[in-house]
């Protein structure tokens, strides 16, 4: 009976974690370049939860272990904006930016120019170029961004946006502000990443799918809660009857 309660609690912890992931996905449905995540779980067989001395030996117990989340790298829909500073990333590449704690990576291509003329993200972080931050003087006109990330004005090429890929992009870690960090080295994207100017990539989260997942998880959580409640009542009844044995 006690083991059943432990199994139920482990399931509730896993379901709560999945609810958090779904809630974060739904909160970022309108976030440019956002990539959804999915929970990943694993069965754990308790090796010592058995009693082989009984005539009918106990079965080994299965618990739920939270194995983290996986990153959905599917392409989000591309929406035309007409803004020459907006870029949508096509393919598995990421845009490198100079974050507060070093180089970070994003798919959000909603750029602008700061007071120093630097190309920056919507959070004000400088976009990394092959030779450092990309700077445009106020007097320059005709700014355009090519498919390979080349930034040009009427005075010529001003730099090229640094596009990178990773051997295992699923290992990227969310670092806040729609940025990712990685312990593995980034490599030049080459033909694996192209930019479309005047457009933005929207979130790849499907609202309908997330709502379906939310209902399934809520239903499962309610079932486990009901099972735990019944087991607790059964234990109370057993204790009460055993206490009345003469």
Automatic annotation (TrEMBL):
Domain Flagellar basal-body/hook protein C-terminal: 197-240
Residues covered by the Flagellar hook protein FlgE/F/G-like D1 domain: 88-152
Alphabetic keyword roster: Bacterial flagellum, Cell projection, Cilium, Flagellum
SUPFAM superfamilies membership: Flagellar hook protein flgE
NCBIfam families per record: FlgEFG_subfam, flgF, PRK12689.1
PANTHER family: FLAGELLAR BASAL-BODY ROD PROTEIN FLGG, FLAGELLAR PROTEIN
Stated family: Belongs to the flagella basal body rod proteins family.
Subunit composition and interactions: The basal body constitutes a major portion of the flagellar organelle and consists of five rings (E,L,P,S, and M) mounted on a central rod. The rod consists of about 26 subunits of FlgG in the distal portion, and FlgB, FlgC and FlgF are thought to build up the proximal portion of the rod with about 6 subunits each.
Protein name: Flagellar basal-body rod protein FlgF
